[in-house]
Amino acid sequence: MDQEKKKKPLAPILAEEMEAEDRGFLRRCQEEETAVRTRQFAGLTCEGEDFSHMRFSGVKFRNCRFWNCSFSCGQFTDVLFENCDLSGCDLDGGYMERIVFDSCKGVGAKFTGMVLKHLSLEECNFEDANFDSSRLEHVQILRTRLDHGSLTACRCRQVFWSEASLKNASFFKTSLRGMDFSDSEIGGITVSDDNGELSGVTVDLYQAAQLAKKMGIIIKDV
Question: How far apart are CA 137 and CA 153, in angstroms?
């Protein structure tokens, strides 16, 4: 528990009362290039829309659907996504700080080249999501699926996993030093031929046996 508290990211700073807005307000902010501040959105459905370069601060999204939308180069600070769907969205080159994704879906979403600070994924499905070349600092992933996800060439600091599913995920050229996967599923993960990414990682006995096979080590029963 002490270790979890130490690594827990900072929560979003949100006002107790926020004005509710609709899709039209979001589009006006995009057209006028103004930041979205201290607002809440509920039940929005957008598909294939361009919200690139937008700025969000102190914002709550609840039960919103952004299918295959672009938020590339966007800035998100103090934002809560609750029961939202960002599947297929493009957030390439963006910035996120003090962000929570709670019970969200982001299948195939693109988070490449991002700066992600104080980020929490809780009870989410982010299968096939791509985080390549991103910087992750003070990030926790709790009871979240990232199967077949790609986290290659990432720079990580204080990344905490708990009951996550990472089957067939790629960590090629991403150091996992200091990370504990002992209660997560890591079967079939991809690393480089020399397995350097695994140096300093914590796993359970079963996972150690799986990884030993990847390294060509034969464990003999006694």
Answer: 14
Distance CA 38, CA 93 (A): 23
Q: CB–CB of 185/164 below 8 Å?
A: yes
pLDDT of residue 215: 72
Is residue 39 within 8 Å of 62, Cβ to Cβ? no
**Nearest alpha carbon to residue 92 among 64, 65, 70:** 70
Report the candidate in 132, 133, 134, 107 with the shortest Cα–Cα distance to residue 119: 134
Rounded distance, CA 16 to CA 119, Å?
21
> Half-sphere exposure (CA, 13 Å, Cβ side) for 11?
7
In the numeric block, which tokens belong to residue 8? 């827990």
Q: Name which of 93, 103, 168 is nearest 132 in CA terms.
A: 93
Report the first-to-last Cα separation within the chain, whole angstroms: 35
Residues forming a β-bridge with 135: 115, 155
Alpha-carbon separation of residue 185 from 11, 151, 168, 206 (angstroms): 26, 15, 10, 11
**How would DSSP label each residue in 121-174?**
EES-B-TT-B-TT-EEEEEEEES-B-TT-B-TT-EEEEEEEES-B-TT-B-TT-
pLDDT at 3: 47
- Could you report the per-residue pLDDT of 31-51, keeping only the tens digit for each? 999 999 999 999 999 999 999
Contact partners, residue 120, CB within 8 Å, separation at least 6: 9, 11, 99, 100, 101, 102, 139, 140, 141, 142
The list of the chain residues with pLDDT below 70 reads 1-7, 216-222
